[in-house]
From TrEMBL:
Phylogenetic lineage: Bacteria, Bacillati, Bacillota, Clostridia, Eubacteriales
Species of the source: Pusillibacter faecalis
Single Gene Ontology MF annotation: ATP binding
Superkingdom assignment: Bacteria
A family per Pfam: ABC_tran
Keyword Secreted: no
The protein, known as: ABC transporter ATP-binding protein
Protein's UniProt keywords contain Cell inner membrane: no
Keywords: ATP-binding, Nucleotide-binding, Plasmid, Transport
Domain ABC transporter: 2-232
Length: 282
């Protein structure tokens, strides 16, 4: 679906934002693009969605070179959730969505009200102006905008930002539903939980370079110290020991009366990111 070879981009002479990215995203894959502020995520997404022109290297989407692919048909196949909601503040959710829907062929469209209902949008605000909405409500309208045209390729920039925990769970369910439909998703995020739960593979980008690319599970396993922490009771006292995972093959290698818990010391995706880049994700 997406093929990127040696992608470079400079803002003027002095600011090279991308230094030769290589990756591909398969049909139906949820691909996570993770990196700290200023690493080049938005620049990459803007190039892939045709907003930013003048890249170096080769990019193809739907099997066509991006430089020639940007026809009306191309834009009708992609949906974009922008990091900052591009909505008309004086129009209601319904009017915003009807307006964006007017750019697409009717047979491709989803029903505005059904979509907003699926996104658990508050009914009594349907016809009130966007300027009166909370952040979470605006995010729901932005997601509806991205989904209204049933896109084959969906770009989501920080989809769960501004949502409360229940809203984030709902959005993850909706993204999962897109996966089941076969939609390809390019997910740009700082949110490690979203990336870990949703993505088939993730790329870590820092300073305009991809420094790791794999499944979340492989990244965690490759960077694990393979140690296990055992909490247990022995002769009336609570104790804890750390052992190497292979030692477990022969059973617990020390005396105990009762095991309380066993935890692997597998790193989180954020730990792995910091190992690769030396930087946190904010
Ligand atoms: N319009 C611009 N003019 C000049 N430099 C820019 C411009 N936009 C971005 N940059 C620079 O390009 C680099 C990559 O920026 P980009 O916005 O792609 O990062 P990002 O990973 O999306 O960051 P964030 O998480 O803050 O959105 C940064 O050094 C940034 O300062």
């Amino acid at each position: 679906m997406i093929e990127v070879k040696n992608l470079t981009f400079s803002y003027g002479k002095d600011k090279q934002a991308l230094h030769g990215l290589n990756f591909s995203v398969a049909d139906g894959e949820i691909f996570g693009f993770l990196g700290p502020n200023g690493s080049g995520k938005s620049t990459t997404q803007k190039i892939l969605t045709g907003i930013l022109k003048g890249h170096g290297g080769e990019v193809s989407l739907f099997g066509k070179d991006l430089r020639t692919a940007q026809t009306q048909e191309f834009f009708q196949q992609i949906g974009v959730l922008f990091e900052f909601p591009y909505l008309y503040a004086n129009l209601s959710a319904v009017d915003n969505l009807n307006y964006f829907a007017s750019f697409y062929p009717k047979e491709q469209l989803r029903d505005v009200k059904e979509l907003l209902e699926e996104l658990e949008f508050k009914k009594d605000f349907l016809n009130k102006p966007v300027s009166s909405y909370s952040k979470g409500m605006r995010q729901r309208v932005s997601m509806a905008r991205a989904l209204i045209s049933n896109p084959k390729l969906l770009f989501l920039d920080e989809p769960t930002s501004g949502l409360d925990p229940a809203g984030a769970v709902l959005f993850r369910k909706i993204i999962e539903k897109e996966r089941q439909k076969g939609t390809t998703v390019f997910l740009t995020t700082h949110n490690m939980l979203d990336a870990d739960l949703l993505c088939d593979r993730v790329a870590f980008i820092t300073n305009g370079n991809i420094v790791a690319l794999d499944t979340p599970q492989n990244l965690k396993e490759k960077n694990s110290n393979h140690r296990i922490v055992v909490s247990y009771l022995y002769q009336g006292k609570r104790k804890e020991q750390t052992i190497e995972a292979p030692e477990l093959k022969a059973g617990i290698p020390f005396a105990y009366d009762e095991i309380i818990s066993i935890h692997s010391q597998e790193p989180t995706l954020e730990d792995v990111f910091i190992q690769y880049t030396g930087r946190g994700l904010s």
